[in-house]
Amino acid sequence: MIAVTIFLVCFVILVGVVMYLSQTIEHGEARFDKDGKVIRNDDDRAAGPARPAERIEDKDET
Description:
62 residues; mainly alpha; two-stranded antiparallel ribbon; elongated
């Protein structure tokens, strides 16, 4: 019985550490240049107005 209690306590602590780390560490892919500096992906496409989607079939007909 004591072994199960110790296992459950360790499991709860481990889950707590994993949840804390998942909330505090930034997720995603980091890219680096030749000097080791992080390359930021500043996408200017999102700054403009939104365009409606076009079907591929419509492009072939024109």
